[in-house]
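User: Show me a protein chain along with its predicted structure.
Assistant: Here is one chain, sequence first, then structure tokens.
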Amino acid sequence: MKKLFLVALLVVGITVFAQEKQGRRAGKESLTSEEKVDIQVKRMTKELNLNEKQATEVRVLVTKQTQKREDLKAELKADKERQRTEMRANLEKEQAAISTEYKKILTPDQYVKWEKNLEEKKEKMKQRMMERRENKDLK
């Protein structure tokens, strides 16, 4: 019984990740949590010949797993965005400090030229990033 339960958990975990990847590749909208649970329970019922009581218990377990996974995913996304904002703020502070240091060292004409070159580099970088995104979308 323990082996059957372990196999069922393993199958559930694998099918969730496989389904999510296929959905992304196909470019279709992702399935809702309930749809994912239904698909998993149907597949497990068919593969393991589960009776109704087992299917109900598996549905509860799969629902818990799916909810935990989605909560973790949301938490990681929020944490990632928080880190990104902090990094941007730190980068802006650092750039401002560097700019003031260059202002002390360079003449006014040199400083204007340096700023102009810096802006040109930023624009080129933006263009390259846009090209990469376009190329990625085409693939």
